[in-house]
Specification:
heterodimer; A: 165 residues; 2 domains; 6-stranded antiparallel beta sheet; 4-stranded antiparallel beta sheet; 1 helix; 10 strands; 29% strand; B: 466 residues; mainly alpha; Cytochrome Bc1 Complex, Chain C; 2 strands; globular
């Protein structure tokens, strides 16, 4: 009788083949289901690029809510612009601006944020997310398609208008 | 005339009846009664004979049966509601108003559905407690206990997905907060959340998704597992109730008497189901399910609370870093729950409420310990102790996560060891005490969240809660 030098015998080979085919079928079915149910993300959520208005219409040190775009356009005391996503970074509540206290206070779990989004009071684990701001021909544009997460609020997030001629 | 191959009309009637109901009605003797149970699709959920001591109401409290009754009520009222409800943000809230004003008995059917759903969460939880306290999960029933936990999670899932459908402020923000808990799962959390919601925020797609889950996927899964769960109970039978001295509770002598399921068990179940249906009906006539203003994504109410059965978790979130409050601690709890029946079990404790006399005392100690310690710890964390402020150089996941969790686990180990020595108890009895402690702690946290958290989630007295 010939010596068995086979790596696997026929029984094991068939077992493995069946198992692999079954696993493959499961993965394929799962992939179909996953893609079928996955969210249909339209390009530019919340209306994509939003034209907030002329630079001069936002006084220094003001917070202007944009309900449709779900953000606040903040103009900090130094004149820099910042667009803050209104969703609380803790559990997703809509954070209102409290003008009396000069900060954002979440009604759900009392997280509080500075004007630039920095956390004053936990449980929020990170500053408010921001949207990219561009200023073109004296008009403030906010790209609301993708919120930008950050670990610390930073002056690098601010956008300044060029000196008005 | 009397051709045997051509039966007369009355014989045909008889034959049609017998083709439907095969066994003699009413049955003549016990054999007949057992045959009816065996040959009836619904009654076949039961064995044909049951041990007489297990019929005692204060042993099972009819909780498993009540859960099943509620599932039936929920299915009937739920299907009715499907005919008058469209899961779209434009129409959902209008449909809820129509239920209250336009549709005959609309409010009553909604109330029945709402209260049955909430009651089911409580009943399923009490059922779990009952099985644990009477040791009804020992071999060979371990896996059925695990299935029971899966069922409890499905019930909570059904409740949570149903919570969104009225599309009022309560629904919108409870689901926003509840689904945000998911986003703290490492790596997959954010993806899972947006998959479930169908986008970055709760919106039209979320409503469609939750509707599909609520009316089809969860009920189907629930019914599949429930069937398996009941089938296992039938195969394994109920644990026989025992008294403290080890004698069988409700039986004379050593032999456990068996009685026919029909009528002894079936009649009891029937009466209990009638009484409970009547009670739920009465309650639903008098107490309306809440409906707040239409959902407004621009304005979170203050306080924005999750559904009441998540308030224990929400309370944890106020004290721990979200990864711990929402993920690690609940996962530890569920994991511990699932492995419970695979621990060593004293055979003498089988079917005895709280294992033994010692077990009863230790359960009481566990309960009192939690009733005292949890409010104290909550007050301490709220007003006195701020670990992140003491250790500002550490990330909050350590100062507000690992450190307090480690401290609590050490306290728990000390409790386990201390009470085991104090009572000279077995591991089985000590586990019971720890179980009671943790369950009471969870209930206390839920009560604090529901009754003592007011505006801005500050601690207030119950009558100041909005």
């Amino acid at each position: 009788m010939a010596e068995t030098t086979k790596l696997v015998n026929r029984r094991d080979f068939l077992k493995i083949a069946w198992g692999a085919a079954g696993a493959l079928a499961l993965i394929e079915t799962g992939g179909v289901a996953l893609s079928f149910f996955s969210p249909r993300v339209a390009e530019g959520e919340f209306g994509g690029m939003i034209e907030a208005g002329a630079v001069d219409s936002f006084p220094i040190g003001s917070v202007t809510p944009f309900t449709q775009g779900r953000f606040y356009l903040v103009r900090l005391p130094d004149g820099g612009f910042l667009a803050l996503y209104r969703k609380c970074t803790h559990l997703g509540c809509a954070v209102p601006w409290n003008p009396a206290e000069g900060r954002f206070v979440c009604p759900c779990h009392a997280s509080a944020f500075e004007m630039d989004g920095e956390v004053i009071n936990p449980p929020a684990p990170r500053p408010l997310d921001r949207f990219a701001v561009t200023i073109s021909a004296g008009v403030v544009l906010v790209d609301t398609s993708a919120p930008i997460q950050r670990d610390r609020a930073s002056d690098a997030d601010l956008v300044y208008a060029e000196a008005v001629s | 005339m009397n051709d045997p191959l051509d039966p007369r009309p009355e014989e045909l009637k008889q034959r049609v009846w017998e083709s439907i109901q095969r066994d003699e009605l009413p049955p003549r003797d016990d054999r007949g009664r057992m045959r009816i149970v065996m040959n009836n699709l619904v009654l076949h959920l039961h064995p044909s004979k049951v041990a007489k001591p297990t019929l005692k109401f204060t042993y099972t409290w009819g909780l498993g049966g009540l859960a099943l009754l509620l599932v039936v009520l929920l299915t009937v009222t739920g299907v009715m509601l499907m005919f008058v409800y469209t899961p779209s943000p434009e129409t959902a809230y209008q449909d809820m108003l129509a239920l209250q004003t336009d549709i005959w008995f609309g409010q009553l059917i909604r109330n029945l559905h709402h209260w049955s759903g909430n009651l089911l969460v409580i009943v399923a939880f009490l059922h779990l407690l009952r099985v644990f306290f009477t040791g009804g999960f020992r071999a060979p029933r371990e896996f059925n206990w695990v299935l029971g936990i899966a069922l409890l999670l499905l019930v909570v899932g059904a409740n949570f997905t149903g919570y969104l459908l009225p599309w009022d402020q309560l629904a919108y923000w409870a689901v926003t907060v509840g689904s945000s808990l998911l986003s703290y799962l490492p790596l997959i959390g954010e993806g899972l959340r947006s998959f479930l919601l169908g986008g970055p925020e709760v919106g039209a797609t979320t409503l469609t998704n939750f509707y599909g889950l609520h009316v089809a996927i969860i009920p189907l899964a629930l019914m599949g597992i429930v069937s398996f769960h009941i089938w296992r109970v039938r195969k394994d039978t109920l644990t026989i109730p025992h008294k403290l001295d080890g004698s069988v509770d409700g039986a004379e002598g050593g032999q456990v008497e068996k009685v026919t399921t029909l009528p002894h068990l079936v009649s009891r179940e029937f009466v209990f189901a009638l009484v409970m249906t009547g009670a739920i009906l009465l309650w639903s006539v008098w107490v309306n399910a809440p409906l707040e203003a239409a959902a407004n994504p621009d304005h979170s109410p203050n306080p924005a609370k999750a559904a009441w059965y998540f308030m224990g978790l929400q309370e944890l979130l106020l004290h721990f870093h979200p990864v711990f409050g929402a993920i690690i601690i609940p996962a530890l709890g569920l994991g511990a729950l699932a492995v419970l029946p695979y621990q060593r079990f004293d055979l003498s404790a089988e079917g005895v409420w709280f294992r033994s006399r010692k077990g009863r005392q230790m359960a009481l100690v566990g309960m009192v310990a939690a009733l005292v310690a949890v409010p104290l710890l909550v007050l301490l964390d709220e007003y006195a102790l701020d670990i992140p402020a003491l250790l500002p150089s550490l990330p909050t996941i350590i100062s507000n996560g690992w450190i307090p969790l480690a401290a609590l686990l050490l306290l728990l180990i000390a409790y386990y060891d201390g009470i085991k020595r104090l009572f000279k108890a077995s591991a089985c009895e000590t586990r019971l005490s720890v179980f009671v402690l943790l369950v009471t702690a969870f209930i206390v946290l839920t009560v604090i969240g529901v009754m003592f958290r007011g505006e801005g989630m500050a601690l207030v007295l119950p009558w100041e809660v909005l």
